[in-house]
Specification:
- The protein has 770 residues and is an alpha/beta fold.
- The protein is built from 17 helices and 36 strands.
- The protein has an eight-stranded parallel β-barrel with strand order 7-8-15-16-17-18-19-20, surrounded by five helices. It has a six-stranded mixed beta sheet with strand order 1-6-4-5-3-2, with helices on one face. It has a five-stranded antiparallel beta sheet with strand order 28-30-35-32-33, with no helix packed on it.
- β2 (45-48), α2 and β3 (86-91) form a beta-alpha-beta unit.
- α2 packs parallel to α3 and α8 (321-337) packs across α11 (373-390).
- The protein is globular and about 100 Å long.
- The two termini are 45 Å apart.
- Bound molecules: acetamide.
- The site of acetamide has 4 residues, from loops.
C-alpha cells in the first residue's frame, strides 16, 4: 500500500507542474490539451439545449454530488455579463457521424458537451466525470472548487457491441448490485449487459405461467465446497430470483444509461433447474437426476434435482411439442420484459446422451431426415429461432450453434477460441467475440490468487492485447464482427466484492479495446494511467485486483543446457531484492539468476510483493527437449522447455505458464541428457480437472536410447499415483542418453463426461529423470 501511495504522490507532483493528459478510460479518439485548468466554483450551473435533455442534467447533477461532493443547479441559460462556470448539454442531430459519438470542449469557464445523439451525450458526460478526482470521502457538499483541465475531445466508439456478461445462476446477485454493475459498465462506455439468467444450478427469472421455475428451480439444497469436484457440500439451501417487476426496474435503469440488457435463457442444455421444476421437459421424466456417487450432495438424490456442483449435465430439454410450447411461452414473457432486439438462447455444451437413448428423439431424427444428434440440436435452435424471428426479435447463441448447421439469422458468440467467430463471419453472420483466453474474467488474473478461481490465467496485459477482429478473417468479412464481450461465470464468485475483484481492473482494459481507435491502443500508455485508475477505484471503494504490481518470474534455459536462469520483472521501477536458500545475505537483482543447485529456494521481494520458487533438480532439468506435437496456442507454457524447467506445478492450474496443454493431441517429448548414464526412474507429471475438460492420458509409455535413433520401450503405465496432480512413473533401470515419453490423449471426450464430444485437454507439467 505504501508503495502505491508513493507512486500517487509522484503522479500528483508531476500533475501540478505540467498540463498532464488526464486519466481517461477509454482513451478518446481525439484529444487536444489546452493550457491551464478551470475551476468549477459554487456559481456553476448546468443548462440543457432542449427540455428533453433534463434527465441527462439530473444524472450529471447527481453524479457530481456523489463523486465530487458538489451541488450544481440546473437552470436556463444565463444572460448578462457575469461569467460563471457553465456546463451546457446539447445534441447536434445534424451530424451523420457515429450516433454514439460526442464532443467535449472545456475553455474559459465553458464546458460544452454535445452528443451526436442522447447516447453520445451520455458518453460525453461520462468522460467529463473522469476529469476531476472523486472525493467520495467528503460527505458535505463543500468540495468546490473542482479543478479540471482545459481540453477539446471528439470521440466515438470503434465497435458497436461493447458487452459484459454476468452469470447469476451459479451465484445470485441482488438487484442493488446488478444496478451497481450497470453503473460500472456505463462509466466505461459499455452498451450491453448480457444477463445469464438460467442454468443447471438455478432459474432466476419469474415466469408467471410456470411458477415452479422459480419456486423449485430457483433453489438448491447445497453447493460443493472448494474447486470442482469439491471437498464437501455446504448443505446451505441457496437461491433467489428476480420478479418481473425487478427485471423491469433493472432494464429501465440500464436503458437510462444507454445499456441494452440481453437476457439469456439456456437451451437445450444447462437445463437441470427447469427440469427439476417441470420433469416433463426431460426425455426421461421418471428417471432421477444422475448424480455421481462421489459428488458431495445435500438432501435427496432421488427425483429431478437442481444441481449442486459444476460442469455439464446429461439431462437436457427433450425436443418435444411440450418443450417447444413451454419455451415459446417462456420467451413470450421474456420478450415483454426486455426491449432488446436480441434474446440469447444459449446452445452451448449440450450433451447428446439423452437424445441418443431416447426412442422419441431417434424417431424425430429419422422423420425430419436429420443427420444425427447434432442435426437435432440444429433443428431445436432453428425452430426456436423461427419463433423468435416471427416476434420481430433475433437470437444470439454460443458457437456450438454452428454445429449441424447455423440458424439462418443467428448472431454467434465465439467462446471456444476465435474459430467459431471466423466461421460464422465467413458465412456472413454477425459475431460477438468472447474467446476464453482473453475474455473470460472468471480466470485468475494473478499467479498467486488467494481465493479459489476456476483456474487458468488471464492477466490485465492479455485482456489489453486482445484484438476482436481475428487476423485470419478476410478483410471484407470484418464488418460482421460487431464487437466483443467479457464473460463472468460465477461458480467461484459468491458475492459482489468478488465480482468487483474479478472484473477490476480488467474491465478498464476491455473498455479501451472496444472503444478506442486501434492505433491509439498502447499498453505503455495504459500502464502509465493505471496508478490513476487504481486511485480512483480506491476513492470509489471498489474492490480490485492488484496483481499488476506483482513481481513476475520466468524460468529460462541456459545456452549450454547446464542449470536454469530465473528472470524477474517488475512493473514498479524500484530495486528487487533476492535471497537464495537460507543465505543471510540479500542482494539487489541485476539480471537473470543462474540456478544449478539440486533443490533451491529463491525469494525476491519488493516492498509488499514477494515471490518464491522451489526448483526440483534432476537429470533432465535444463536439458534439451524436443516435442513431436506443438502444444496448443492457448497453453504454450514457455515452450517445450517448460517440461524440464525444474518447476513442479504446486499451484495447479493458476499458473498456466508452468504446463503445456494439448487439445486432442498426444504429448511426445524427447530429452537429450548429453551423455549416456544410468537412469533409475522417469516420472511424468500430469494435471487433471475433468470439469474443465482436462483429462488424464489413456497411457504413458517410457522409452530409452543411447544414440537417439533406436529406442527401447521400458514400460507403459496406465494407472498413475496421486489425485489431480498425477504422477506416471517407471522404475526400470537402464543406461541411456535419450529419454522419450509418450502420453496418449483420450481424444474426443466420451459420453457422459464434462465436454463430451469435444477434444480432451491433456495438461503436462514436468518430466523428471533420476
Ligand atoms: C460457456 O462458457 N459455456 C459459453
Amino acid at each position: 500500500m505504501k508503495r502505491i501511495i508513493t507512486l500517487f504522490l509522484l503522479a500528483f507532483t508531476l500533475n501540478s507542474y505540467s498540463q498532464q493528459v488526464p486519466v481517461l478510460i477509454p482513451m478518446p479518439s481525439e484529444l487536444t490539451m489546452h493550457s491551464g485548468n478551470i475551476d468549477i466554483t459554487s456559481d456553476a450551473y448546468i443548462s440543457v439545449s432542449h427540455p428533453g435533455l433534463a434527465k441527462h442534467a439530473a444524472l450529471l447533477q447527481s453524479n457530481l454530488l456523489s463523486m465530487h461532493g458538489i451541488i450544481v443547479p440546473v437552470e436556463p441559460e444565463r444572460t448578462g455579463n457575469k461569467i460563471s462556470t457553465w456546463i451546457r448539454l446539447a445534441i447536434d442531430k445534424n451530424t451523420d457521424k457515429n450516433p454514439e459519438g460526442y464532443s467535449l470542449t472545456i475553455r474559459d469557464k465553458r464546458i460544452m458537451i454535445t452528443g451526436n445523439s442522447e447516447a453520445g451525450l451520455f458518453y460525453g458526460i461520462q468522460t467529463f466525470l473522469q476529469l476531476g478526482d472523486p472525493r467520495s470521502d467528503r460527505m458535505e457538499p463543500v468540495a468546490f472548487p473542482l479543478t479540471i483541465p482545459q481540453l477539446s475531445i471528439t470521440d466515438s466508439p470503434r465497435f458497436k457491441y461493447r458487452g459484459m456478461h454476468l452469470d447469476v445462476a451459479r451465484h445470485f446477485q441482488p438487484v442493488s448490485f446488478i444496478k451497481k454493475y450497470i453503473d460500472f459498465l456505463a462509466a466505461y462506455k459499455f452498451n450491453t449487459f448480457h444477463w445469464h439468467l438460467t442454468d443447471d444450478q438455478g432459474w432466476r427469472i419469474e415466469i408467471k405461467k410456470y411458477p415452479r421455475l422459480t419456486q423449485v428451480g430457483g433453489y438448491r439444497n447445497g453447493t460443493i465446497i472448494g474447486r470442482y469436484p469439491g471437498t464437501g457440500n455446504d448443505s446451505i439451501y441457496y437461491g433467489g430470483f428476480y420478479t418481473q417487476e425487478e427485471i423491469k426496474e433493472v432494464v429501465k435503469y440500464a436503458a437510462e444509461r444507454f445499456i441494452d440488457v440481453i437476457p439469456e435463457i439456456e437451451m437445450p442444455g444447462h437445463a437441470s433447474a427447469a427440469i427439476a421444476a417441470y420433469p416433463q421437459l426431460s426425455c426421461f421424466p421418471l428417471e432421477s437426476t444422475k448424480i455421481l456417487e462421489s459428488t458431495p450432495w445435500a438432501g435427496s438424490r432421488k427425483g429431478k434435482q437442481v444441481q449442486q456442483t459444476w460442469g455439464v449435465f446429461e439431462d437436457v430439454f427433450a425436443p418435444t411439442e411440450y418443450t417447444f410450447n413451454f419455451l415459446e411461452d417462456v420467451v413470450d414473457e421474456v420478450m415483454l420484459l426486455f426491449p432488446s432486439k436480441y434474446i440469447h438462447i444459449g446452445g452451448d455444451e449440450c450433451p447428446k446422451e439423452s437424445w441418443k437413448r431416447s426412442a422419441f428423439c431417434q424417431q424425430l431424427i429419422r422423420s425430419k431426415k436429420l443427420k444425427d444428434e447434432h442435426g437435432l440440436q440444429s433443428y431445436f435452435i432453428q425452430r426456436m429461432e423461427k419463433y423468435i424471428n416471427s416476434k420481430g426479435k433475433k437470437i444470439i447463441g454460443w458457437d456450438e450453434i454452428l454445429e449441424g448447421g447455423l440458424a439462418p439469422n443467428a448472431t454467434v458468440m465465439s467462446w471456444r477460441g476465435e474459430e467459431g467467430g471466423i466461421k460464422a463471419a465467413t458465412e456472413k453472420h454477425d459475431v460477438i467475440m468472447t474467446p476464453g483466453n482473453w475474455m473470460y474474467f472468471d480466470h485468475s488474473q494473478s499467479t498467486n490468487e488467494d481465493s479459489v478461481t476456476i483456474g487458468n490465467y488471464t492477466p490485465l496485459e492479455e485482456v489489453y492485447s486482445y484484438e476482436p477482429i481475428p487476423a485470419k478473417l478476410a478483410n471484407e468479412k470484418a464488418k460482421y464482427i460487431l464487437g466483443a464481450q467479457a464473460n463472468l461465470w460465477t461458480e467461484y464468485i459468491k458475492n459482489p466484492a468478488k465480482v468487483e475483484y474479478m472484473i477490476f481492473p480488467r474491465i478498464t482494459a476491455l473498455s479501451e479495446v472496444l472503444w478506442s481507435p486501434k492505433e491509439k491502443r498502447n499498453w505503455k500508455d495504459f500502464e502509465s494511467r493505471l496508478p490513476g485508475i487504481f486511485k480512483r477505484l480506491d476513492q470509489q471503494k471498489i474492490n480490485y485486483s492488484k496483481a499488476f504490481y506483482e513481481l513476475k518470474a520466468t524460468v529460462l534455459p541456459t545456452e549450454n543446457f547446464t542449470g536454469l536462469l530465473w528472470k524477474l520483472e517488475s512493473t514498479v521501477n524500484e530495486p528487487i531484492l533476492v535471497k537464495v536458500n537460507n543465505a543471510d545475505s540479500v542482494w539487489v537483482y541485476t539480471g537473470p539468476q543462474l540456478i544449478t543447485d539440486k533443490t533451491f529456494v529463491a525469494a525476491a521481494n519488493f516492498k509488499g510483493t514477494t515471490l518464491s520458487q522451489k526448483f526440483h533438480f534432476n537429470k533432465a532439468t535444463g536439458k534439451k527437449i524436443v516435442l513431436a506435437n506443438e502444444a496448443s496456442k492457448g497453453f504454450p507454457g514457455d515452450g517445450p522447455f517448460t517440461l524440464v524447467n525444474g518447476v513442479q506445478n504446486e499451484k495447479a492450474l493458476t499458473r498456466s505458464r508452468e504446463f503445456l496443454g494439448f487439445a486432442g493431441k498426444d504429448m511426445e517429448a524427447t530429452i537429450d541428457l548429453e551423455q549416456v548414464q544410468p537412469v533409475n526412474s522417469i516420472i511424468l507429471h500430469v494435471l487433471e480437472q475433468t470439469g474443465s475438460w482436462i483429462y488424464r492420458p489413456t497411457s504413458v509409455s517410457f522409452y530409452a536410447s543411447e544414440n537417439g535413433t533406436d529406442f527401447t520401450l521400458l514400460e507403459t503405465v496406465i494407472v498413475p499415483k496421486g489425485k489431480r496432480h498425477l504422477l506416471y512413473e517407471t522404475k526400470k533401470p537402464v543406461k541411456a542418453r535419450f529419454i522419450k515419453v509418450l502420453a496418449k490423449n483420450m481424444g474426443s471426450i466420451g459420453s457422459g463426461k464434462p465436454g463430451a464430444g469435444n477434444p480432451a485437454w491433456l495438461f503436462v507439467d514436468e518430466i523428471e529423470v533420476k
